[in-house]
Amino acid sequence: MRRVVIAGVGMTPFGKFTERNMKSLSEEAVAAALGDAGVGVDCVERVFFGNAAAGVVTGQEMIRAQSSLRNTGLAGKPMFNIENACASGSSALHLAWLAVRSGSCETALVVGTEKLTHEDKAVSFGAFARGVDLEEPLPEGYQSGSGSLFMDLYAIKARKWMESAGASAEDFARVVVKSRKAGARNPAAQFREETSIEAVLNSRMISDPLTLFMCSSIGDGAAAAFICSEDYAKRLATKPVYLRASAIVTATVDGQGEVVAARAANAAYEEAGVDPTDVHVAELHDASAPAELIHYENLGFCAPGEGARLLRSGDTDLGGRISVNPSGGLLSRGHPIGATGVAQIVELTQQLRGKSGTRQRPNAKVALAENNGGQLAGDSAVALVTILTT
Predict the structure, then answer these.
(1) Based on C-alpha coordinates, what's the Rg of the chain?
(2) Which among 91, 110, 203, 342 could disulfide-bond with 213, CB atoms 3.0 to 4.6 Å apart, if both were Cys?
């Protein structure tokens, strides 16, 4: 198996762009990634396109890559459409990595694009609501009323975790304060103003204990990455970032055993030959604020029940020992679901290149991305963990 390099990355700003469509967003991200790598469309052998919700929100089905990329110069190349809930982008990266690693191609372009905003918010929320097994009963303790099925589900997990870990809503607010501090330094972030614990706690209650600021928002955006073999990368001028591992797992039938994030992380650590103490910077799937703290534990950054303590220590702040979500994460950078997994890779590639400005984690050499999606048997339906190194 060959070593795989991320040679170019690019993304659009994330936000609510009523005037833009998937073509416009995709074209900008593709041009940025190819420009970063210093290559043209003729250098792309295959395209892997991640999108989750176009069929519901825009009505575009079946040929999302072909339609979104028709004006980029990539028309005629092999294109693969990947839909895997909020992990669609990282799933596309996983398949591209396998293709290059195996030697079946020298280069591949990964694109994640999502257009979530709609004049009727019920359409956007409805897209998320399809990310569950529609025949599975809702869990015990489920309370409807927020308008967002997933935030109601996240609230159940948050309440259980608060009880087991001795955490408080203030700890969740601290996650948001850290997130907004990072987002304020990221020109591509959807939310770019810092906030306070008090403001987070006093924002509108969505689903107890989650307030508005503790929930990721609906948004639009695209991100792209040009990957290639190590030999091909020697022709390019960019500093190589190595894609060392990409692990994907899905939920069990009954939700028993380790959660998907932990299983994916363990597989990725083994593949890359590193452990949690080696990670310098991480992008985690914080679709709600409690998720970041829970994932500290899932990924082995701390012992079970110690997530809140790790946050309070400052070790996960910008420039910290394990700088977590320096992009602002889903809470502040934004969560156009099909683009999220690739956007994580954009941030981590910049971090490993030392190009993240005031968000930079000094001397970052090992980076981890955790991206999950959907809901099944009380767990995320799918999770991917990707490890990058210099």
Answers:
(1) 19
(2) 203
